[in-house]
Amino acid sequence: MAAIDVKRLETVFLGIDMPLSDAQIAAFLTYAEMLIEKNKVMNLTAVTDSEGIIVKHFADSCLPLAIENVPHGAKLIDVGTGAGFPSIPMKIVRDDLQITLLDSLNKRVNFLRDVSDSLNLGAECIHSRAEDGARTDLREAFDIATARAVARLSVLSEYCLPYVKPGGKFLALKGSDCREEIETAEPIITKLGGKIANIVEYSLPNGDGRTLVVINKVEKTPGEYPRRVVK
Predict the structure, then answer these.
(1) Which residues are CB-contacts of 130 (< 8 A; sequence separation ≥ 6)?
(2) Which end of the chain has fewer CB atoms within 10 angstroms, the N or the C?
(3) What backbone torsions phi and psi does residue 56 show, to the nearest 5 degrees?
């Protein structure tokens, strides 16, 4: 029995105007199988049912590509990527992207390397805390940074914007009803060299609300950021 309902996968992606090729369907299926299998021995995700993986992981990860322009061949870093969301699904539907996956837990990074090798993604998988990686040659080296973490936007921005080169952007995948969180984050975003360019509220195919916050990098991030302890 397949890890996910392939027909449902096709239907969901057709519904978000992202028709999948046979190769992309096979990649998503393999990814789901690896995710479910590894989740038996380590905590990668609480969502392991077919519908949840398709909608809450795969479609949720890819919808920002339908909302915001991501240039062809863009270098993208996924900060605190966890089980590989949103960057691996993005790479599956946009093979032109060059992805770097950064996470603080080495066991997760090893899993991500296995996924990248199995799917021939060519991903760079890095074991590092976000605040440490931003003080290496990864600093301001990327066109796009993404994060789908549960941290507040003020914290995510301090972790992610230092990786983005001026002229690039940070895509923060948030839940619904986060206007107050966005307003609170604006002062630190400005200090980090960013500017909120767009806030798009939308729904997943199951009706769950989501918000994409697009932050343009308008100038270099001052050297004191990110701080060791981000509040």
Answers:
(1) 79, 80, 102, 104, 159, 160, 226
(2) N
(3) -80, -20
- Helix/strand/coil for 200: strand
| Nearest by Cα to 101 from 47, 70, 67, 142 | 142
* Residue 82 DSSP symbol: T
Closest CA to 83 of 130, 150, 27, 31: 31
What is the reported pLDDT for 228? 81
Q: Give the orientation angle of helix 6-15 with respect to helix 22-39, to 10 degrees.
A: 120
Give every residue of the chain whose pLDDT is below 50, as ranges. none
16, 67, 209 from 186: Cα distances, Å: 30, 22, 22
pLDDT of residue 1: 63
Nearest-angstrom CA–CA distance, 7 and 26: 12
Which residues lie across from 203 on neighbouring strands?
209
- At 230 the pLDDT is 65
For position 150, what pLDDT does the model report? 75
Query: CA-to-CA distance for 217 and 80, rounded, in angstroms?
Result: 19
Distance CA 146, CA 172 (A): 6
Q: Is the dihedral of CA 216, 121, 148, 80 positive or negative?
A: negative
Task: Dig out the tokens for 142 from the structure.
Answer: 């990327």
CA atoms within 13 A on the CB side of 39: 17
